[in-house]
Design brief:
Order of helices and strands of chain A: HEEEEEEEEEEE
Oligomer: heterotrimer
Largest sheet of chain A: 6 strands, antiparallel
Helix content of chain C: 55-70%
Radius of gyration of chain A: 25 Å
Chains: A alpha+beta, B alpha+beta, C mainly alpha
Strand content of chain A: 25-35%
Shape of chain A: elongated
Number of helices of chain A: 1
Structural class of chain A: alpha+beta
Structural class of chain C: mainly alpha
Strand order of the largest sheet of chain A: 2-1-11-10-7-8
Strand content of chain C: under 5%
Strand order of the largest sheet of chain C: 3-4-5
Distance between the termini of chain A: 65 Å
Largest sheet of chain C: 3 strands, antiparallel
Chain lengths: ~140, ~500, ~475
Amino acid sequence: MDGYLITLWILRLLFLAMLYGFLFVVGRVLIRDLRAASRGPAEPGRLVVVASPRGEPQVGVSYPLDAITTLGRDLASGIVMDDPYASALHAVLTYRNRTWYIEDKASTNGTWVNGVAAAGPVELGFGDEVRVGEVVFRLDRGRS
Amino acid sequence: MTAPSRRDTRIGANAVRTGIVLAVTFALIATGAGYWQVVEAQKLSTAPDNPAVIAIARRTLRGAIVDRNGAWLARSVKDKNGEAQRQYRDRSLSGVLGYASARYGTAGLERAYSTQLLGIGDADPVHQLTAKFDPRPVKPLTVELALDLRLQEAAVAGLGKDSGAVVMLDPATGEILALASTPTYDEGAVSNPATADDAFAALQANANSPLLPRATQGRYVPGSVFKVVTAIAGLDSGAITGTTTFPQQPGAEAKGLLVDGFRIKDGHHPATGGTALDLVGATEVSCNIWYALAGLAIGGGRLVEEAAKLGFGAPIPFDLPTAASRLNDGTGSAPGGFADDVELANAAFGQGGTFVTPLQMALVAAAVANDGVLMRPHLVTALQGTAGGARTVGPESWNRVLTSAQADLLKAAMQQAVEGDLGRMYTVGAAVPGIPTAGKSGTAQVVGSPDPHSWFIGFAPVDHPKVVIAVLVANGGHGAERAAPLAGLLMANYFALYGKP
Amino acid sequence: MTAAAIRFQPRLRPRPRSTELGLLVIASLTLLMGAISLGATERYLAASPKGVTLGALGFGPADPFGIGLYVGALFAVHAILVLAGRRLDQVLLPAAGLLGGIGLLLMQRLPQDLVSQQLGGLVLGLGRLQLLWLLVALTVITVLAVGVRGDRWLRSYKYTWAAVGIALLLLTFVFGSDTGGARLALTVGPFSGQPSELLKVILVVFLAGYLSENRSLLAEESLRLGPLRFPPLPYLAPMGAMWAIALGIVIVQRDLGAALLFFAVFLALLYTATGRASYVGWGIVLFLAGSWALYNLFPHVRIRVDNWIDPFRDPSGAGFQAVQALYAFGRGGILGVGLGNGLPTIGGHMPVPAVHTDYPLAALGEELGLVGLLAILGLYLVVVQRGLRIAASLHDDFRALLAAGLALVIGIQACIITAGNLKLIPLTGITLPFVSYGGSSLLANAIAVGLLLALSDRGPQPPPPPRRRLRLVRLGRRRGATA
């Protein structure tokens, strides 16, 4: 039994142990993420299309919403609207403190809530209708 | 025109499912890795072309091989350059030891026990673990053989210039006391890197095949020594007893026995006249006709079965590679693989398609000698050393082929063959002076050669035999010419060394 | 990106990435420990034949400059990601970085003259070249992770990308040079690369675009033939084309690995997009039929398959590489023999030919044992899992498929090469991502990881719920003028 060899083997085994240590910590992160994902509110709300003169998106299609959802023509938006009357970034729909708010983002044609032009953040309730461009949406409760 | 964006859990779920399939595949791959790294690890790590094994072989001193009295037979020493050099005591052991050459690999015992001689064939997991902490983990083992060097040297000297083999063993334990094959060769010349190329080329060019270990792998027509097998088969199967006679046998002596139109001749014993022989009588005079009839009475299938109990039909499990002895080539449609009764009759007295190894015939005699119990033959009695894997090998019984009474009967028959008035003529010189000896000689007619093989198998003393011997001198003439006297000489030598009983 | 979009992005602030930092610390310490053990082993092996007293040897790492530079680069990437402030996945970089580090240790351990390149006066050996490529790869990851904001350049030009891919493929068919049996490389000046590596990323991009565009059609309108479903006829053509391309790669390029990889990724993405297992079933039938035909028609395929089934039949000829690799695995056992201590040389050469490209797992299996091998497989699973999770959380079909495809291409490639090394499938000449030597391989996998990181952007953090007394109008003031 040689002392150097024993130390050398301890080093080698430590290396292997640390590899597993890394995997273990990653595993914890993954489990934490999974738990967070399943704990969050499934869907705080949905936007349902009630009127669409161009036919696209179709009436009845519903979009699930996040805590912050952007509407607009830009491809990076949460809800992409292929509508010439919608601006690139048209409006932002946020859910805070269990209340929905919609805010127009300096769009060319404005955002209308129940027929009234929205100026600044406006509170929304389930059933309220929002018009962006030519499309009219209705805010509905989320599916679980 | 882009599709409206919508979060669709279906892609997510599908992706998760694909991920699970991939994870399962990884698990299967991990199992595969486990197979190679755990299950097959031992076999892979000791394969001779594994570079780690080659590297160890190059720098380790191979373990020694010693005989039963501790005399060294093969050993490694470091020469002046620090390289390992393999030395061999005697060329009489070439058939057993083989050689260990860096270029030409290993043969014989050097090959069969290579992992132990190198010290790497260790299966003990605790030892494997502690070996990691040892700067010199490789500990070669010493292989101790049951061989007696003196008996071996006498056997080789006795065979002289002829090709042949001698097997001597202890019937009670199965230990092999001598295993000689001639011609021999110089193992040291092949193992020494300086002379290896020339030596090996010369060996391969030699028409007498010195590299063939005749005792274990040479197959020869047995002739009359095979009659002992037929006798064992007959007694054990009940087809013949001590008093069985065949009425047609005396009459067929003059003109030969007709079997399916084929005439079997027997010219060896006009002295018995018209008496019908029994087992003892037929063995004493080596009557082909009696044995042919006995073989027909036993039947081909039964004969092959009984022979299998003695080790026929498959390579004998042994420390060295062996060739399988057989009664026929197996292509016949009659029971046992014989083509017809003619072939069966011929095989019953050791001609026809019968081929045996000297080791096999020694085992046949050993079975009779040991009261009908055949012990497993073994050459290696112990692996000595401090490494794991050191062990001793004890005697192990293999098969019972005869009852004690039947064995006594056959022993008496074989004793008559050596010491009886008529028998003596066929086994000249086999009897050990002063010690009751039993045995059987054989003169095997060989197709294509005027000289038959000379065979003898036997044991002494008849009660509680201490030594069994089988001698073959290829193309040596009648059994009595070479094999029988040599056997007598070697057995006498044994008693001189070990004391008379 | 449009001006409005730029205005929309909240001003980026540095955001701490503590999980990533912690994981990087563990990974760096692991790599350091590996380097120390490698250094000690090298010193031990050099000293033992001479009989130097072992106690006098020290315990420093093997190539402190190389490992130090690599670890430093990892932390530099981390710092840049922190400064960029986007909420990207925090596990991908450490996992891929650890794999790259293991590969670097392996390349440092192998004889440096297996590969050498002249770079103005300096001659770089295996370890240094791998380090160089790793640094380039890390740069690519950083640039992609921070710079890629939108996906129009990928999404809208998928047919352009497909054309580029096919052009590359044809170029290699025609001009490629044979490097050792099967892989074809394209040589441009002093650099030679393997286009099939880049092709796999282009393939994923194209497939993501094509499948996302047509996925509802593919899933819903299918031909029914009894209980079986075929995709609708107009779409069978591209799928058939995919199969034909795979066959072509095998026949012309003799690259079984790339063909298998492309086809497997295609099937996996097809399933992810449509959810129809029957399409995958048909794909497997096509694969088996194609393999059988190739086996019987083409001798080079037959040689590979026969060699796979029983390499011990010709252990010093055709089966040499496979047999030696198995011996390496056997020597490793459960705990391995220690980094740097394996691979006994045959006449001064490595026992396993091409161990740095084709058989890295044999070396790692011997030196790190079954335990280490399982850990490496675990790391690949982590990368794939993160990628698939990113895919599952994305809203957009194209992005989701792209993320899934990139994750799967890394995972499936690791599967194929690992199974080949272990004689579970015939050996193919593809590389082990992040570990094998090879600039093209590292770059292509870096592109994949970089894009995955960019896709994992979870957007701005939702602002915390305001305290009850604040009025809403404050929000409006910060966001600019209202309509």
